[in-house]
Amino acid sequence: MNTDNQYNPIELSKEYLKKSTLGNQVSIEQGFNVELYEVSNNLAFIKNFGNIAVFKNDSTGLLIDTGMGVSSMQVIEKLKEWGISNIEYIIYTHGHVDHVTGAEYIVNAFEGTTKIIAHENVTKRFDRYKKTIGYNGIINQRQFGLPSPVFPNDFAYPDITYSDEYELEFNESIMILTHGKGETDDATYIYSNKDDALFTGDFFIWSLPNAGNPSKAQRYVGFWGEVLKKMSEYNSEYLFPGHGPLIKGKKTVKELLLDTSNCLLWIEENVLNLMNKGYSLREIQSELVLPEEFFKPYLVSAYDDFSFLINSVWRQYGGWYSGTPSELKPPKLEDIGRTYIDMAGNDNNLLKFLESLVNSQKYREASVIVDAAYSVNSDLFSDIKKEIFLKLAEEESSLMAKGIYKFNHDS
Ligand SMILES: [Zn+2]
C-alpha cells in the first residue's frame, strides 16, 4: 500500500512517542524534503513544512492545505505520480503562509477549476496581511533566522467560506469542517467519516501549542483546549497534524488530543486564578510551573514557550499593562542606560560590571542592563551584548525565544 519504502510517518510518530523529550519537529528544513505516504487507495499524507492531505476519486483530488510555495514543485510532482490530474477542492485549515502559499502553484499546475474552501476569517486575514507586510517580513526573518525579511504579498483567496460548520461530500465520504479558535481565529478542522480521519491543521503540531507567539495577533489558549476536547470525541483512527508525522491508533490519538487539551486548559485556568487574586504578570511568570503530567514529547516548548502562553492569556483577558507600575510608561532606553553608567561611575566600569555578570552566568540580568547601555554607547557595548544574547539563545528551548535573542547577533 505504501508508495514509498523508506518514509513511514506512522512508524516515525511511534518513535517520537517513545522519547521522553523531543527536539524541534517543526524545523524549516522539513520544507525542503517532500514525501508522499499512501494511507489507502484514496487518501495520502504529504509531508511538507506544513503538511498536506490528499483525497483521490479516480484522478480527481481534494487537498487539505497546500504547504509553502517554495516546495510546490515537489508537491505537484508527487500528486501527479500518485495519479491526480485535476483538483476539485482545496480546504485551508487556516490562513498561515506555510499552509496556503502553495495553492496558486498547485492550482495552475492542474487542469480544470479548483474551488478553495476556508473559514470566513481567512479572507479577513489576507486583507490584514496587506496592512502588515513589512512587519510580517521582519518577524519571519527573526523567527526562522532568514537572511532577509520575506513575506508574500499575494494570496489565493477562498471561493467558498463558512462561519461555524460546513459539510462536503467527496468520493462517498462526508467531510465535516468545523471552525475553532486556537492559534488563529480562522481555523478549520476536518473529519472524514469514510477514512475515520481527523485533520487538525495547527491545532496539533507535535510540540507545545503555538498559542503564545510574542510577535503575533492574539491567540486563544483556552478556546484551543476546548477545540481539542471536541475533536477527541470523534474517537478517530488517524490524526493528520499540521506539522510533524501522521498518527494512527484510536487510543493514541485520543490521548494526544486530551493531554494537549488539558495542558492548555490548565494554563488558562491557573493564569486566570492568579489574575483574579491580583498577581502581576511577572509574579504569575515566577509562580507557575508546568506540572510533570505535561512532560510529554508532544508538549515540549520546542516552537512556542510555556511562559509565552502565560503572556497570551494575560493579554487576552487583561490587556497589555503588566501590573508593575514602572512598566506602564518606561523611560527612554538611553535615559536608563545613562543612569546605569552614572551608577557605575563611567562606561568602562559598567562594562566591567557586565563582564562579572556574564562570568557568574547572570545573562538575564545582564541583558536588561546591556540593552540600555548599548543605546548610549553602541561601540563599547556591542561585543558583550552579542555574547549575552547568544548565551540566552543557547539556554532556550523554543524556536521563538532563540530567534529573538539571536536576531542581529548570529553571524
Ligand atoms: Zn503551520
UniProtKB/TrEMBL annotation:
GO molecular function per UniProt: protein dimerization activity
InterPro entries linked to this entry: Alkyl/aryl-sulf_dimr_sf, Alkyl_sulf_dimr, Bact_Alkyl/Aryl-Sulfatase, Metallo-B-lactamas, RibonucZ/Hydroxyglut_hydro
UniProt-listed SMART domains: Lactamase_B (SM00849)
Superkingdom, natural source: Bacteria
Record-annotated Metallo-beta-lactamase domain positions: 49-243
Protein name in the entry: MedDCM-OCT-S23-C8-cds36
Taxonomic source organism: Candidatus Actinomarina minuta
Lineage: Bacteria, Bacillati, Actinomycetota, Actinomycetes, Candidatus Actinomarinidae
